[in-house]
Amino acid sequence: xxxxxxxxxxxxxxxxxxxxxxxxxxxxxxxxxxxxxxxxxxxxxxxxxxxxxxxxxxxxxxxxxxxxxxxxxxxxxxxxxxxxxxxxxxxxxxxxxxxxxxxxxxxxxxxxxxxxxxxxxxxxxxxxxxxxxxxxxxxxxxxxxxxxxxxxxxxxxx
Amino acid sequence: xxxxxxxxxxxxxxxxxxxxxxxxxxxxxxxxxxxxxxxxxxxxxxxxxxxxxxxxxxxxxxxxxxxxxxxxxxxxxxxxxxxxxxxxxxxxxxxxxxxxxxxxxxxxxxxxxxxxxxxxxxxxxxxxxxxxxxxxxxxxxxxxxxxxxxxxxxxxxxxxxxxxxxxxxxxxxxxxxxxxxxxxxxxxxxxxxxxxxxxxxxxxxxxxxxxxxxxxxxxxxxxxxxxxxxxxxxxxxxxxxxxxxxxxxxxxxxxxxxxxxxxxxxxxxxxxxxxxxxxxxxxxxxxxxxxxxxxxxxxx
Lengths: 158, 300
What we know:
The structure holds two protein chains of two kinds.
Chain A: E1 3-5, E2 8-13, E3 16-21, H1 28-36, E4 54-57, E5 60-63, E6 76-78, H2 91-99, H3 108-121, H4 127-133, H5 145-157
Parallel strand pairs in A: 2-6
Antiparallel strand pairs in A: 2-3, 4-5, 4-6
Chain B: E1 2-5, H1 9-17, E2 21-23, H2 29-35, E3 43-46, E4 56-58, E5 64-67, H3 72-77, H4 79-84, H5 86-92, H6 98-103, H7 106-112, H8 120-126, E6 129-134, E7 137-142, H9 143-146, E8 147-149, E9 152-153, E10 160-166, E11 173-180, E12 191-199, E13 205-213, E14 220-221, H10 230-244, H11 255-277, H12 286-289
Parallel strand pairs in B: 1-3, 2-3
Antiparallel strand pairs in B: 4-5, 5-10, 6-7, 6-10, 8-9, 11-12, 12-13, 13-14
């Protein structure tokens, strides 16, 4: 059934349904951060270039700064807050810390969401496939080598 | 603003007839609105959940019908497109980032009408047609008729691109799309070229089509090319592309640089298409195989 949305919609984020009332021109990033209150997803360039705002929509990576929140209604959204298993860090989180792939940390949530989508699709990626999988995410601290090593290690451990 | 999430084509076409504008992944529309390029339309109809727009079907004559809502990710990983319409897979594999390719669609790329669109030149060399539908019916137009200027198409406001029709691939034919880029993700073509080549039984070029990206107000086809040896045709394509280009200077490149590089891209596209036509497998996207945008030290 086609559905018309004026203001009220329900977003499913990390398995929890959040009813929100927003202008339908609002982007998904701002609704996740300011209406739902999950601030792990970051606003970097706000221009679909840097990937800090990356979330998963039905398991696929999406730049939430440039995606309408209303278009995400009825789909499953996963943010960085949804990757931990209880109090256990996700293997990507643990390996990014252990490999030194985190410095200021601002790009890290987006990196983890892109890497999660990559490993779900390609469990044993080549280094080239890891680079392509993270190619929509910028980091100004690490120089990327340690981030790639962390993804490599996560794939090797699985 | 109001948004209709359409699940049937009829609902979407009715919304367009009532003045709504279509949105799929939003990778041009939403980004453009946030840039201040154009405000979001007051009424939008989301077409990304219409299943009939997301199918890829073999046509009776051996061609392919690609739904306008098929994503770049699907195109770059589709075995049939990669093998038979390789240039289109080359192009979709270069669009944006994995995120852009998952939500961005072929129909969106075509109808956005950018002269720098990556899928446009491959569609021209294949002789593709766009199927436009409205509440009143549907029609097919060739790509040269569709694009009339930067960001402008000949489609009426109530017409939706529902599919791209690709003619059957000829025997001993191959295609390739190359793009000059400064970085390998979230990039827009500095210039680009697609070629489709059909070889004769003795390995010469029997027929060739070449189309160019980001060197004119729309995607344009190179005229005056004829058959001959692969080396001669590649050299002729290089000269003709540089001669026929009408590039602008902007922050991405000067007109002189674009004119020089479009010739190089055209020659390499013909060479790669001829190799594929001869049966060689060159991985998608061909950009990497010829060394454009390779990571330092990468071997694949």
